[in-house]
Specification:
By secondary structure, this protein is α/β, with parallel strands linked by helices. Helix content is 47%, strand content 15%. Helix 1 runs antiparallel to helix 2, helix 9 crosses helix 10 and helix 9 crosses helix 17.
Length: 448
């Protein structure tokens, strides 16, 4: 059955069917608004209602997560898993534990994950999940009890060939370990491939923790190379102080760049002499403290609770904390300050108006589905190692990661040019390249 519905009508219908889901609707609008030239070139996508189908998750699970505090108080959170698209392989996407997690947030993240995963070239579909649980300030015992209860609600809908979650904000190696232990307890199986981001001694992959940050910097290198430039001597602002920011900083320092900011929910640090990576790792990974401690121990640094890292004049900006952290005013400040490159280490951290400002100014702007795909790429490599019951060397994994990020960059450039854009329109390129791979697979597999 043919459909004549255009993109605007599909967006309006999506808004009608998903009232109040602002994050999800924003993600849908950003992707679909760039796809007109793709649909013009492929009328078969319209005839098969590819877009109408792709904005609907295959499955959406929401469940109760009861747990007890160390004082014996009963608390109840919500757990989520959106299984958006399995057309390219098992659902793949992280679990986020953060108070802001809602149905809208997991759907926005899962929708973006479809195209990000497609860009990696790996056989993985798109999914996402998490809970509105806040792990900050909780004891290890409380986090273990929560993770066990969360997995009790989740284990029936995941599996190494069905749905393979990983970590995201608030979910690191500790949480993955607790959840895997409960999964194994409930199923009686050692399915190493059911979760990624595992410990190295029981199925994890080298550089998985570093992968998103490393891959982000790899992508920036590829963007700069198109203008015969590199990262040597560049000043860089980052937000966040989790794995993405920390390991982007590590890779930046190795390439001769000077990262000067980072942040968490308490505020942000400006260190004009360059970030002391070992101090930052000690504060965030060992002590699990707030970033303000950095300024107490580093005389060149200042801690701020007002403004943002985007107030600092830099060559490169890497928003790597969370969604909607760069607005139009901050984007204008970056442009005015001479920023040459903006690449998203987080998922949709730049509001649509900010993205437009960057593109109109001629900056190199790398959207998250391309720039931060390194994490899920190495998760897929971890799945391969689990299937083979092997552990690859750091050098092998990092070489594969670099190859994947280079391939993603090439796909973006070629897709943008193919559909009438410029070689540096990474928004069109990433959306078109990811979408066409998924759409072609949907056509091949029929109306399902």
């Amino acid at each position: 059955m043919k459909t004549t519905a255009n993109i605007e009508e599909i967006i309006e219908e999506t808004e009608r069917r998903n009232p109040g889901q602002s994050e999800f609707l924003e993600a849908v609008g950003v992707v679909l608004s760039s796809l007109a030239p793709v649909l013009d070139a492929h009328p078969e996508y319209r005839d098969a209602a590819i877009i109408e189908r792709i904005v609907e998750p295959e499955q959406l699970h929401m469940f109760r997560v009861p747990w007890t505090t160390d004082n014996g108080e009963v608390r109840v959170n919500r757990g989520y898993r959106v299984q958006f698209s399995s057309v390219l392989g098992p659902y793949k996407g992280g679990l986020r534990f953060h108070p802001t997690v809602t149905t809208s947030v997991v759907k926005f993240l899962g929708f973006e994950q479809i195209f990000k995963n497609a860009l990696t070239g790996q056989q993985i579909g798109g999914g996402k999940g998490g809970s509105d649980f806040n792990p900050h300030g909780r004891s290890d015992a409380e986090i273990m009890r929560f993770c066990q209860s969360f997995m009790t609600g989740l284990f029936r809908v995941i599996g190494p060939n069905t749905d393979v979650p990983a970590g995201d904000i608030g979910v690191g190696g500790r949480e993955i370990g607790y959840m895997y232990g409960q999964y194994k307890r409930l199923t009686g199986r050692f399915d190493a491939g059911v979760l990624t981001g595992k410990g190295l001694s029981w199925g994890g992959s080298l550089i998985r923790k570093e992968a998103t940050g490393y891959g982000l910097v790899n992508f920036v290198e590829n963007m700069l190379a198109t203008r015969s430039d590199d990262l040597e001597g560049k000043t860089v602002s980052l937000s966040g102080a989790g794995n993405v920011a920390i390991y982007a900083i590590e890779k930046l320092l190795a390439l001769g760049a000077k990262p000067v900011t980072f942040s968490d929910s308490s505020g942000w640090i400006h260190d004009p002499e360059g970030v002391d990576l070992e101090l930052l790792k000690d504060i965030k990974e060992v002590r699990r403290a707030r970033v303000g401690e950095y300024a107490k121990e580093r005389s060149s640094a200042t801690f701020h609770t007002e403004g943002s890292p985007w107030d600092v004049e830099v060559d490169v900006a890497l928003p790597s904390a969370t969604q909607r952290e760069v607005n139009a005013e901050q984007a204008r400040a970056l442009v005015k300050g001479g920023t040459k490159v903006v690449a998203e280490g987080a998922n949709m951290p730049c509001e649509p108006e900010a993205q437009q400002i960057f593109q109109e100014a001629g900056l190199l702007y790398g959207p998250g589905k391309a720039a931060n795909a390194g994490g899920v790429a190495v998760s897929a490599l971890e799945m391969q190692q689990n299937d083979e019951r092997q552990s690859w060397t750091k050098e092998k994994v990092e070489t594969k990661l670099e190859d994947i990020m280079r391939s993603i960059h090439t796909q973006c450039v070629e897709a943008s040019e193919r559909y009438g854009g410029t070689s540096d329109d990474y928004v069109l390129g990433a959306n078109a390249a990811g979408f066409t791979r998924v759409a072609d697979a949907m056509l091949a597999q029929g109306l399902v």
